[in-house]
Amino acid sequence: MIASDSIGFVVGGMTGVGKTTLLREMQKKLSSSPDSEPTCVCDVLIIKSQHGKVNQQRDCFVTFYDMAGLGRHLTGRTAVYCHAAKAILGAVLVFDITDRKSFDALDQWYKELNVTFPLSDPDFVKILVGNKVGGWRC
């Protein structure tokens, strides 16, 4: 684990692929709902975790910047990227395994994120998530 007590990830992908639902399930605080409202520019979800040796654990706050998937929100997303750039150490790109277009759109997301973040840096974490297995939203 890195020395910092706070790390951040930007979460991107087309609208409707289940980014918000995935994060809410990870947080285990909010219930999963297929009828959840689409994200407008950015939702921020924070998950508290612990790291370190058994008797020396420290709290770590993992912040997920859940980005709106519609193209019309590009300006807002760019503002969030610039504002949070120093805190973001990785990207989670999500696609719907039942929708090939959502996978193909990840190329544009990669290009968009590469403007602000060092995606070629091996220390910048990149996670690819295929979502909606069996019709369920994760």
TrEMBL record:
This protein's UniProt keywords: GTP-binding, Nucleotide-binding
Gene3D superfamilies: P-loop containing nucleotide triphosphate hydrolases
GO MF assignments: GTP binding; GTPase activity
One Pfam family linked to the record: Ras
Highest taxon, organism lineage: Eukaryota
Name of the protein in question: Uncharacterized protein
Organism name: Hypsibius exemplaris (Freshwater tardigrade)
